[in-house]
Amino acid sequence: MRISYCFGGQFGVFERVAESITIGRCPPGATGGPDLDLNPDLTVSRSHARLWREGGQYFIEDTSSTHGTQINGEEIRGAGPYEVFPEDHIRIGETILRIEGATPSRPVSPHSVSTRANSLRSAQIFPSAEMEGEVASEMPVTSDLLSSAPSDTIRRFGFLFDLILQCGTATHLDELLQQMIEQLLEMIPGAERGALLLNGRDNAGKAGALLLKAFSSGQGPVVSETLARRAMQKGSGFIWTRRDESGQSGASIARFQIEAALYAPLMWQGEALGVLCVDNPGEAIFNSDDLRLLMTAAHFLALALANQNLQEELRRESAIKANLLRQFPPQMAEQLLAHGKPQLSGERSEVTILSCDIRGFTQLTQHMQPIDVMEMLNDYFSRLTPIIFAHNGMVDKYIGDAILAVFGIPQKDPMQHLNALRAAFAMQEEMVKSNRARASKGRAICQIGVGVHSGEVLHGIIGPAEQIQTTVIGDTVNRATRYGDAAKPGEILLSPQVYQWVWKEVEVEATTIDTKHEGVLPGFKLQRLKDAA
Fold first, then answer.
1. Residues 468, 455: Cα–Cα separation, whole Å
2. Is the pLDDT of residue 146 over 50?
């Protein structure tokens, strides 16, 4: 027997010469598992179901699984043996299966429809089609794909099954949309032209623009925008014919000579993502089965589009989180994200800024190989950044060999001045350890100078979603870099604006620094932190 199955967008085929098989899940490292192992679907029980062939027919029985087994949406757990056919939609856990082979299709008879509780409808594979006024009669309650010839039924189920698999695995959705349009024209008798449009925004950013994503026609895209918007507004598909429109045809209908058409919206959580349509310029008549097929295809395409939109949103959020993690300690980044996506903003706050860079970097690296320079910088940043995070600081930016860190935002920190000095002290200690380790391995070593200053800045979130970051602006930033540039190797300089807050906690030596634009500035060399071990 041959069984195709799909879980999480991954497709597989099980093939074995056997009259009976067991279906379930074998945990990693376990032995004696089922014949068909559906791991890693964790909703599948270890012993979930048994499938066997008897007299040319296939039967399946749920073996008291936890999550049950469904045939076309009908739960069969506890119902005993259940006859299955090639067109049946079998769900075990979250895995979809289909039996392949020469087994006859499900017989078409009032008995089979009633006793099986109209399984195709219960499976909700075919959404109900709400017919509009232009259709002469309502869809019969018992109408479904079983009214087609068995071969057509199998072809359509095969098309839908392949569509499900492709929607779960497609990496280039545009190619799938175009392929699906062409296949629909083969599946629906009389359909000669088809198109798919998505609901988007125009160049001015206004919602409601219909964007053409795929079409198949010998004369370019053929779409009635009036009918397309009607389907999207109503949220339901319909069959349209010119003779039933009573002279209310739009210009595009007349221009393209549309005589009969099917329109189905791509609905997702009550929102129309787009519309799928096929039409005929002749006298072809579409029926309710054709509409069901189109609506089913539209349903699965809506799922695929929604999944793609979700993946793009997750990628954007991941990029935002990655940028925040690059600037903030993990716990602080998580708190920022807990309130939703950070929005562009700006405000003024009193902060403490730490500026440090490598002393003599240009002379140090001019004879080094580029790869050795990058290795040294990566080692330098990877050692110092966690220290900043550990003292409730954020990294505003990396500039060449320099780090600009900010304390006191985005959350207020009454200890920001002392935390900045503790971070600076720990950074210098780490550089001593790093240089000792690097020297023992014959690698280049470097020393840093650190300056700390505090004052008011304008800070906020800037940049597109994928590159979002927090930045600080103002004279306080420039003044902090002056102290950082003036610090000698292994030295920490703090401004009077910082010293006034921490004078009880530190021992310092008064000094001055020369600057190009601000002249001579007073400062203090940090000698010792009184609470340091």
1. 24
2. no
Residues 235/199, Cβ–Cβ less than 8 Å: no
pLDDT at 468 over 60: no
pLDDT digits (tens, 9 = 90+) for 373-429: 999 999 999 999 999 999 999 888 888 899 999 999 888 899 999 999 999 999 999
H/E stretch holding 523 reads strand 520-529
Which residues make beta-bridge pairs with 193?
279
DSSP code of residue 242: G
State how far the Cα of 508 lies from the Cα of 523, in Å rounded to an integer. Answer: 10
Could you tell me the two tokens for 254?
């007349």
CA 325 → CA 351, 393, 394, 468, distances in Å? Answer: 20, 12, 9, 11
- In angstroms, how far is CA 84 from the centroid of its own chain? 36
499 SS3 class:
helix
Which of 59, 100, 99 is CA-nearest to residue 76?
59
Extended beta strands in 27-124, E state:
36-37, 49-54, 57-62, 69-71, 74-75, 82-84, 90-92, 95-100
Amino acid of residue 442? G
110 touches 127 (CB < 8 A): no
| Distance in angstroms (rounded) separating the CA atoms of residues 331 and 328 | 8
β-strand partners of 268? 271
Taken in order 107, 109, 113, 114, is the CA torsion positive or negative?
A: negative
Task: Give how far Cα 261 sits from Cα of 125, 173, 185, 197, Å.
Answer: 22, 25, 12, 15
Task: Please give the Cα distance from 279 to 290 (Å, whole number).
Answer: 11
Measured CA to CA, the distance from residue 396 to residue 405 in angstroms comes to 5
Mention every residue, 6+ apart, whose C-beta is less than 8 A from residue 441: none
Cβ-based burial of 248 (10 A; exposed 0-12, middle 13-18, buried ≥19): exposed
- Cβ atoms of residues 476 and 351 within 8 Å: yes
User: When comparing pLDDT for 312 and 121, which is higher?
Assistant: 312
> What is the per-residue pLDDT for 109?
41
Pull the structure tokens for residue 44. Answer: 């599948």
CA dist., res. 210 & res. 224, Å (int): 11
Residue positions counted in the chain? 533
For 340-407, give the DSSP string. Answer: SSPPPEEEEEEEEEEEEEETTHHHHHTTS-HHHHHHHHHHHHHHHHHHHHHTTEEEEEEETTEEEEEE
Helix (H) or strand (E) holding 15: strand 10-15
Q: Measure the CA–CA gap between 38 and 6, rounded to whole angstroms.
A: 9
The H or E element spanning position 447 is none
The conformational region for residue 247 under phi > 0 = left, psi -120 to 50 = alpha, else beta, is: left
pLDDT tens column, 324-337: 555 556 665 565 55
Residues 37/22, Cβ–Cβ less than 8 Å: no
Q: What angle do CA 327, 330, 332 make, to 5 degrees?
A: 80
